[in-house]
């Protein structure tokens, strides 16, 4: 009779547990980027590409207002420029969120509205941000209206798509049950549809913010004389790469802080009542009509399927 002997691995073999942890991987990433940065700096034959310490000194001088750089006759600094950009982003973001949510609900509920908005939503998604940035600058000048509209144009389609997908993914069984008890349409929307939309709504918030931010910066580069985007162009025109990279890092720091201090706490609080879920992926698929199993207005179902309203009201679905 053969005997199989297995030996357990010794505790000392392999990597330590803390090395395999996600926290270590997250901490390791900036050091890897820094190492690649130094590698490029010492191997690239260029007098323009800056060293990390040069960028760090520049950023510190900008924060402490010791650089002596005047961005205009009013001695505007990083705080003034960032405040202008943040004001534009906030106004445009909330307009895009409200407008996109209303249209997204209508598109997801009704096939007629879906057909009406289908082409222009796809057209705006396909349009490069540079196109409407230049157009807004030509049409509206170098004020605040152009950059704000750039955020609205860039963010609204992503909100529409995510809200529409949330409507489509609302459980049909709950809708049918509510209709069988003759629950009014407004109560179905409020108590069934909206709670199911929350994961998609938070995805819409994140993507509308990210895309709107990019559209805003591009517009400020070409169609503004103030703001963070214009400041990046200021350093680009001056052939100072450390200024361009420094302000790009300011963007990254702000985005990470907003994600960790605002978006994550809001999401945790909104989904406190439900089990943990996987992150909702943004819906970038076909922007077609609502599927048959989706959430539809009853009149759309009657027209499409030929259902008699007198029979539908009897509760047999």
Ordered list of secondary-structure elements with their pairings:
Layout: H1 22-43, H2 52-64, H3 78-109, H4 111-126, H5 129-140, H6 145-168, H7 172-180, H8 185-223, H9 228-237, H10 241-270, H11 298-305, H12 309-312
Helix pairs in contact: 2-10, 3-4, 3-6, 3-8, 4-6, 5-6, 5-8, 6-8, 7-8, 8-9, 8-10, 9-10
Explain what you see.
By secondary structure, the chain is mainly alpha-helical. The protein has a domain at 78-273 and 288-312: MetI-like (MetI-like fold). The protein is 69% helix and 0% strand. It has twelve helices and no strands. Mean pLDDT is 78; it is low at 277-317.
User: Could you tell me the radius of gyration in angstroms?
Assistant: 26 Å
Uncertain segments of ≥5 residues (pLDDT<50)? 277-317
Number of strands: 0
**What is the quaternary state of this protein?**
single chain
Reported CATH architecture of the domain at 78-273 and 288-312: Orthogonal Bundle
Can you give the mean pLDDT? 78
Shape: globular
Q: Count of DSSP helices?
A: 12
Helical amount: 55-70%
End-to-end gap: 66 Å
Q: What CATH first level of the domain at 78-273 and 288-312 would be assigned?
A: Mainly Alpha
Order of helices and strands: HHHHHHHHHHHH
What is the CATH third-level topology name of the domain at 78-273 and 288-312? MetI-like fold
* Major sheet characteristics: none
The CATH superfamily of the domain at 78-273 and 288-312 bears the name MetI-like
């Amino acid at each position: 009779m053969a005997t199989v002997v297995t030996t357990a691995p010794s505790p000392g073999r392999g990597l330590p547990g803390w090395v395999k942890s996600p926290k270590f991987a997250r901490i390791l990433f900036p050091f890897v980027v820094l190492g690649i940065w130094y590698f490029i700096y010492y191997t690239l034959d260029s007098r323009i590409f800056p060293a990390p310490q040069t960028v760090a000194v520049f950023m510190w001088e900008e924060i402490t207002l010791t650089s002596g750089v005047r961005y205009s006759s009013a001695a505007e600094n990083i705080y003034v420029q960032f405040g202008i950009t943040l004001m534009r982003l906030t106004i445009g973001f909330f307009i895009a969120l409200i407008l996109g949510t209303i249209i997204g609900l209508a598109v997801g509920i009704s096939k007629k509205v879906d057909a009406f908005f289908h082409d222009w939503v796809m057209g705006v998604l396909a349009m490069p941000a540079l196109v409407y940035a230049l157009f807004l600058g030509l049409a509206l000048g170098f004020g605040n209206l152009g950059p704000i509209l750039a955020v609205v144009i860039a963010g609204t389609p992503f909100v529409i798509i995510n809200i529409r997908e949330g409507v489509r993914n609302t459980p049909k069984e709950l809708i049918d049950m509510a209709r069988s008890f003759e629950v009014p349409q407004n109560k179905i929307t409020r108590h069934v549809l909206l709670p199911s939309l929350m994961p998609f709504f938070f995805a819409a918030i994140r993507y509308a913010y990210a895309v709107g931010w990019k559209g805003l910066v591009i517009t400020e580069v070409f169609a503004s004389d103030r703001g963070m985007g214009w400041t990046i162009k200021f350093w680009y025109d001056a052939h100072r790469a450390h200024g361009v990279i420094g302000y790009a890092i300011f963007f990254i720091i702000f985005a990470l802080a907003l994600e960790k201090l605002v978006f994550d706490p809001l999401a945790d609080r909104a989904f406190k009542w439900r089990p943990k879920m996987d992150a909702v992926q943004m819906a970038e698929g076909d922007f077609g009509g609502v599927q048959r199993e989706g959430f539809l207005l009853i009149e759309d179902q009657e027209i499409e399927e030929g259902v008699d309203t007198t029979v539908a009201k009897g509760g047999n679905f």
